[in-house]
């Protein structure tokens, strides 16, 4: 329904997608401005940072397209319209994810892919079969990890009633964080996003293997291939949180 609605005015849709592409592209413009003044950022060159950026932006774009509407849950609980979803013969999570589905978010994915392609063409890497395999693995696993964050954030809204901005801090904030090399952050912070909230497995850890860069925490080389496992664990935990939140829901009380 939302796709049909957005495609009713084709010209408006195309302009919106292009606008989304240009606005999200400002993040990379900021990186380009930094490199106009320095030769490296945390010891990483522009193509290497662009590689991180493209991976993070594309993976997050895929998650944002599919689960980016989860922040409407708080508003639905406040006005009582969430109850309507509960009586429909369809999974509640799927209904919430599809609510206000915005196809214009393809602009973010397109922008991320363009930067990633440029990075792959310019970065100095001795490609092997394992490194080639890691690129699509990072995109898929990273997208799943961000999807799990969206679901976990939505589950938290059952407790907080309206926590959309808290959710955005970990989703939108997380993708912005991963667009920069881990060497520009303190080791304690890197430990936090590696072992507590494993955002580092979206791109930092496997990208360090591809680019042959030492990871700040001296992880073993095989850790670069753990992204699918980390994504599966994140999904399981997010699913448990969602089920617990859904069971605790008691309507608006009005």
Automatic annotation (TrEMBL):
| Regions crossing the membrane | 12-38, 50-68, 136-160, 189-210, 222-242
PANTHER family the record matches:
INTEGRAL MEMBRANE TRANSPORT PROTEIN, SLR0610 PROTEIN-RELATED
Q: Does the keyword Hydrolase apply?
A: no
* The keyword Metal-binding appears for this protein: no
Q: Which domain of life is it from?
A: Bacteria
Q: What is this protein called in UniProt? A: Transporter
Keywords for the protein's UniProt record, in alphabetical order: Membrane, Transmembrane, Transmembrane helix
């Amino acid at each position: 329904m939302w796709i049909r609605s957005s495609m009713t005015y084709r010209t408006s849709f195309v302009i919106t997608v292009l606008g989304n592409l240009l606005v999200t592209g400002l993040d990379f413009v900021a990186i380009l401005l930094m490199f106009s003044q320095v030769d490296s950022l945390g010891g990483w060159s522009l193509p290497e940072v662009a590689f991180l950026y493209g991976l993070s932006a594309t993976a997050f774009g895929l998650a944002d397209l599919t689960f980016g509407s989860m922040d409407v849950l708080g508003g639905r609980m406040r006005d009582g319209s969430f109850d309507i979803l509960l009586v429909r013969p369809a999974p509640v999570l799927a209904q919430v994810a599809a609510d206000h589905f915005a196809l214009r978010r393809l602009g973010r994915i397109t922008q991320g892919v363009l930067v990633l392609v440029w990075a792959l063409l310019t970065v100095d890497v001795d490609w092997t079969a394992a490194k080639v395999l890691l690129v699509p693995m990072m995109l898929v696993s990273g997208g799943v990890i961000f999807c799990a964050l969206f679901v976990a954030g939505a589950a938290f809204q059952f407790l907080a009633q309206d926590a959309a901005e808290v959710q955005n801090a970990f989703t939108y904030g997380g993708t912005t964080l991963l667009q920069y090399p881990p060497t520009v952050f303190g080791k304690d912070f890197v430990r936090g996003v590696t072992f507590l909230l494993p955002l580092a497995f979206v791109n930092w850890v496997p990208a360090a293997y591809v680019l042959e860069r030492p990871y700040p925490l001296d992880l073993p080389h095989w850790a670069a291939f753990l992204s699918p496992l980390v994504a599966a664990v994140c999904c399981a935990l997010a699913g448990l949180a969602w089920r617990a939140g859904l069971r605790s829901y008691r309507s608006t009380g009005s």
